[in-house]
Amino acid sequence: MPELPEVEALKDFLTENLVGHEVVRVLPVAISVLKTYDPPVGAFEGSEVTAVHRHGKFLDIEGGTGLHLVTHLARAGWLQWKDRLPDGPPRPGKGPLALRAALETGAGFDLTEAGTQKKLAVYIVRDPREVPGVARLGPDPLAADFDEDRFAALLKGERRQIKGALRDQSLIAGVGNAYSDEILHAAKMSPFKLAASLTTEETERLYAALRTTLTEAVERSRGLAAGRLKAEKKTGLRVHGRTGEPCPVCGDTIREVSFSDSSLQYCPTCQTGGKPLADRRMSRLLK
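^ thats the sequence. predicted structure below, dont judge the formating
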């Protein structure tokens, strides 16, 4: 799933390639992709793109007509840029193509989604806050005003495991499964630790890991073409998706906890005092 660093890089890429150009065609291909109908999708056609924004994991393409094309790529979605789009309209079918947007230059982008769970979403709205997922977003962890005191206040009273708290978009916007693993590894903290139980020192350490991990990931992705961002994300991850490999910090074997629809990865030596976490959904918390 694209998370804050990749969506930030896509925002920068689209700013360079879309701003100042006219969107002449927006063609939904998958029935499930379009989540709004008023204004109609055709109302965005003829708009000159004036800016591209990021809200958490949402991309927001702003048109000069006052409309916004907002998309969330979900777990298996992606944006594919094409300097020259194919001639003729795309054919609806069972392929990955969900939506195509064409510019007056003949260039444009495709939104695609792999797999059978079609959750990629596109909204045409007058204000991004009309999108439910945007309206309930918490603060952006890379915002200038997101300081350590604000972070500590968010965690105060949180009775959830810290892994789940970091992934909650209404608490902190933009962090998903992969980067929460990376942040907790950098902070040397168990993913099952209760957020409210963090000491002042642990909160400071987690805040530093959050900012550093995301900032470094954004910098690695900056300037890359859209097609290279997935590979860059994978190569930059230390523990997530690396079950069975040696930890790059201590050399211990990276372990995994599997859930019904996801998994987390961690280093026992770095994060849990050498203790492996029980690999079942109702694992007991490690303090």
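The helical segments are 4-18, 132-135, 148-155, 162-167, 177-186, 200-221, 229-236, 268-271.
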